[in-house]
Amino acid sequence: MKLWGGRFTKPTNELVDEYTASISFDKKLAQYDIQGSLAHVEMLAKCEIIPSEDAETIKKGLKVVAEKIKAGEAELTEANEDIHMNVEKLLIDEVGAVGGKLHTGRSRNDQVALDMRLYLRDSLVTLVELLKNLQEALVKQAKANLDTILPGYTHLQRAQPVLFAHHMMAYVSMFERDVERLSDSFKRVNRSPLGAGALAGTTFPIDRHYVAEKLNFDGVVENSLDAVSDRDFVVEFLSNASLTIMHLSRLSEELVQWSSAEFNFVELDDAFCTGSSMMPQKKNPDVAELVRGKTGRVYGNLMGMLTTLKGLPIAYNKDMQEDKEGMFDTMETLKGALALFAPMIETMEVKKENMYAAVAEDFSNATDLADYLVNKDLPFREAHAVVGQVVLHCIQENKYLLDLSLADFQSFSELINEDIYDVLSPKSVVNARNVVGGTAKNRVKDQIEQAESRLTEAEAWIEIHEEKVNVLKK
Ligand code: ARG
């Protein structure tokens, strides 16, 4: 007999059981479900809705059920549909009919919203920590490469030289914003929907704030209809996760390019690469490629959730059961990617000489020749034209700017003097970009300093919020 079987005259069709059940994936929520039930039952006793002895019995029973599920000893069945009814059934098996008092003043609709929020807030803290570890690895590479110059690219054509440290710090900035978004979203996730009942509230004199406090929420979701309808916190997570993996996929692409024989700028550690079953010489950047590839599925999960919610009337609709698999999948994909990226970046060998050689063999100092002429009062547009001529000459002669003699230079402009050789050296070119956020060594050092102070802030955030979510696990 189903927990809700009273008004039915025959058993559910087996295919219906199979199709509508969520236990195969929402069993992931088991421990959160039980945490929520423990707080709920304490509130029921405190508000004198059920006797304290019954609440004690239920609490003990719930703890046994939690242990059994953890140990894989509990039987979770499709016949019991989802994690909520499976736990209730296991509880009743454990403590008898009194277990049936647990669901007083509660619906699976507010219960599932609660479980989702408990799961997500926990995972948000883990994600921020993983992002922090990755940023630290990037900062470490930046610090070790404050004198490493490589061509900066636009249109994947050599454009202007930059410090490799500068390039690493660009990613640190991206991941900083990701941390900001995830930690900000925590505030919206961390509200208790419990007490909304099925949709309208409950007739029992419950205390929503008491439950919220027990579970370390920052408050309650005010409107009961909203509390059971809302999954925008899931959409927000899927969107934030999409941005993070988008950043990772760009870094992935660069690692793939840089580790090719054509670039030969970095070598990824053997521990983070895989081989070919046929070609003995191969060493492939599979992790980077796979993260780049998985980005598609993470975006898909966002589009899936948005589409599921589009046009749904409030309050709960069974459609909303579709909120789980995409969220779990995205969470695991992102956690896996971040956990691999931090050590992969940290152990990556940077081939400084190859980067420098690439800078020497290009025209990425051409802008500096133009700027040099501008500083001698030639209008920029004319300077641009002169340098265009110089570059064309070099291409025809198979030379780079620094290969030209002073006489060569002066045949294009009288304004050019001996000091041009220093001005056009890669190091001068880099250090000339001495503006806030520019690639000059001192400016990159400033970026590193600021990033480190924000990493300290992130660490403090993690500590406070770990405490918040861990209280329940004690
Ligand atoms: N398994 C359901 C879900 O994940 C739980 C809520 C079901 N509520 C209901 N009224 N059928 O969404």
| Structural class by SSE content | mainly alpha
Rounded mean pLDDT is 96
Bound molecules: arginine
Helix content: 55-70%
CATH class of the largest domain: Mainly Alpha
Number of strands: 4
What's the arrangement of strands in the largest beta sheet? 1-2
Largest sheet report: 2 strands, antiparallel
Strand proportion, as a percent range, falls in under 5%
Basic shape = elongated
Number of helices: 19
CATH topology of the largest domain: Fumarase C, Chain A, domain 2
At CATH level 2, the architecture of the largest domain is Up-down Bundle
Number of domains: 3
Compressed to H and E, one letter per element, the order equals HHHHHHEEHHHHEHHEHHHHHHH
Pfam families: ASL_C2 (PF14698), Lyase_1 (PF00206)
Enzyme class: lyase
Subcellular location: Cytoplasm
Pathway: Amino-acid biosynthesis; L-arginine biosynthesis; L-arginine from L-ornithine and carbamoyl phosphate: step 3/3
Q: Can you describe this structure?
A:
Pfam families: ASL_C2, Lyase_1. Its main location: cytoplasm. Keywords: Amino-acid biosynthesis, Arginine biosynthesis, Coiled coil, Cytoplasm, Lyase. The chain has 474 residues and is mostly helical. It has three domains: 5-104, Fumarase C, Chain B, domain 1; 118-195 and 222-357 and 446-463, Fumarase/aspartase (Central domain) (Fumarase C, Chain A, domain 2, Up-down Bundle); 366-424, Orthogonal Bundle (Ribonucleotide Reductase Protein R1, domain 1), CATH 1.10.40. It is 62% helix and 4% strand. The chain has 19 helices and four strands. It has helices spanning 14-20, 23-26, 30-46, 52-70, 83-95, 108-144, 164-189, 208-214, 224-229, 232-258, 286-309, 323-346, 352-360, 366-375, 380-397, 406-412, 420-423, 426-431, 441-470; strands spanning 149-154, 157-163, 266-267, 349-350. The strands form two sheets. It has a two-stranded antiparallel sheet. Helix 3 (30-46) crosses helix 8. The chain is elongated and about 100 Å long. The two termini are 36 Å apart. The relative contact order is 0.11. The model has no long low-confidence stretch (mean pLDDT 96). Arginine is lined by residues 22, 26, 82, 108-109, 112, 316, 318, 320-321.
